[in-house]
TrEMBL record:
Descriptive protein name: FkbM family methyltransferase
Family annotation (Gene3D superfamilies): Vaccinia Virus protein VP39
Record-linked InterPro entries: SAM-dependent_MTases_sf (IPR029063)
Source organism of this protein record: Spirosoma montaniterrae
Length: 214
């Protein structure tokens, strides 16, 4: 009975591609196409709201870079891992520009992801070197608190900021407080995401007049 529920082709775990993502250990859908490593409810929410007039900045790269590039006009992404950068860069379309910016810290990934909000690095500051206001900024890499801090001034007046892994809100509280102080409202999308079998949250931070019309 349980196995039937898990592998029923009409079931959510199959149709969302979650089972396939676990087997392949990649953020992919049921047809093996790349999807963001964000919560499924958020992906379903934002996909129909994207268009080719939008530009995106992404802290952290991966299948999400490819997925967004297919749906928006331009995406800039930054990556701190050289191995991952070399893996991703060869699979990107022309409208996706990926840069490598190492974060030379003797710490594990968790420590690098949730550094103090005042710990500025070339990685977190890269968005300011682009001289562009973005419609969407995605914070899903390292040094998240300071990346949030720098993103606030680099989104357009109707731009939105996406922060993944709200289950770690405590470690990102300083950055999340900055968004609140800047007048951003918060919409949370909780559920499964590719590969992961525990509940995860993706946060959408927006102002009343926003490009997603919410």
């Amino acid at each position: 009975m349980i196995w039937g529920l898990l592998f029923d082709r009409k079931g959510y775990l199959h149709q969302s591609g979650w089972l396939r993502s676990v087997r392949r250990m990649q953020a992919i859908d049921v047809t093996d196409c790349p999807i963001p490593w964000l919560s499924y409810p958020f992906i379903e929410f934002i996909e129909p709201r994207l268009n080719k007039f939008m530009n995106v900045y992404e802290y952290g790269s991966g299948n999400s870079t490819r997925w967004f590039a297919k749906r928006v006009g331009l995406i800039h992404a930054i990556e701190h891992s050289l191995d991952w950068y070399n893996t991703i860069k060869g699979n990107l379309p022309d409208n996706a520009i990926l840069v490598y910016e190492p974060l030379e810290l003797k710490a594990d990934y968790h420590d690098m992801a949730f550094m103090d909000v005042n710990d500025e690095t070339p990685y977190s500051l890269n968005i300011k070197t682009r001289n562009l206001l973005y419609d969407i900024v995605i914070v899903d890499g390292v040094n998240r608190n300071n990346c949030i801090a720098n993103s606030i001034g680099c989104v357009s007046s109707n731009g939105v900021i996406i922060v993944d892994n709200l289950e770690y809100s405590g470690q990102m509280q300083a950055g999340l407080n900055l968004l609140k102080d800047a007048g951003f409202k918060r919409l949370e999308f909780w559920g499964l995401s590719p590969i992961v079998y525990t509940k995860t949250g993706t946060g959408l931070f927006y102002r009343p007049d926003n490009c997603l019309l919410i």
